[in-house]
Design goal:
mainly alpha; 248 residues; 11 helices; globular
């Protein structure tokens, strides 16, 4: 099923394209197959930001793994899906609120024997803890850490999608040479040098850079849009993402 988001100004009056979160919110009382798939894909993206959030709350690595897996297990159940309503808001906000409720009301019910059984998301405990150990050691709040990791995960996802597209089109070399242009550091290398590396004209390189950046922006908007249901929310999420990256 296609679940992309179009933010083209020409279609400002058109309906917002179906997203994964809108599929979840629109799940019927019985037909939850599509919703479970859509929610599962969203959860796979969000597992590390949530894991880091729980760790910053003071839980041990083992408890954080247990809690994160159990949280997703309950979230992905058909019973929970039928309880999610349209007023669920943005997926990111919904997810954090749901986790807070879970930590307060449910964590004591976990049994030690559940650890390692029935993996709901592909959560690599060693990888998670290695990543967490690289987190800032200052007094950053769990909420702020969650926002920052959410933003970084989205950027990683978009970068991987863009790289995959270039590989599929046989343009690996172009991506390899020009990928640094996505970081805003294009001016560090003259177009003449890039043209020499790609064995093409400078004007061609300028066009290639423009297309690379444009496609990156498109994919970023698509990915951000997966957790909302309206164009206005997507624009707001983009602003939140940039604020999170800026550390504000």
């Amino acid at each position: 099923m296609s679940s992309t988001v179009s933010l083209n100004k020409k279609h400002e009056g058109a309906c917002f394209v179906t997203t994964r979160w809108s599929v979840v919110l629109g799940a019927g009382q019985d037909d939850t197959t599509l919703a479970q798939d859509a929610l599962g894909r969203l959860c796979q993206t969000y597992w590390y930001p949530l894991y880091a959030y729980v760790r910053r709350k003071g839980y041990t690595p083992e408890d954080a793994q247990d809690l994160t897996q159990e949280f997703f297990a309950r979230l992905l159940s058909k019973k929970t899906l039928r309880q999610i309503r349209r007023e669920g808001g943005k997926f990111r906000s919904f997810l954090l609120t749901a986790m807070n409720h879970f930590l307060v009301d449910e964590w004591r019910k976990l049994k030690a024997e559940k650890r390692g059984a029935g993996q709901i998301v592909s959560l690599d405990g060693r990888e998670a803890e290695t990543r967490y150990e690289r987190e800032p050691v200052d007094e950053i709040t769990p909420e702020k850490l969650f926002q920052q990791n959410w933003a970084l995960v989205l950027l990683d996802t978009v970068y991987a999608r863009l790289e995959g597209e270039y590989k599929e089109e046989g343009k690996e070399r172009i991506f390899e040479v020009l990928r640094f242009c996505l970081t805003g550091e294009r001016s560090k290398v003259p177009y003449a040098e890039l043209a020499k590396q790609l064995r093409t004209a400078e004007n061609t390189v300028k066009t290639l850079v423009h297309r690379l950046r444009a496609r990156y922006r498109e994919l970023l908007r698509e990915e951000v849009g997966q957790g909302v249901v309206s164009r206005a929310e997507a624009e707001e999420e983009l602003r939140c993402l940039f604020r999170a990256l800026a550390g504000s």
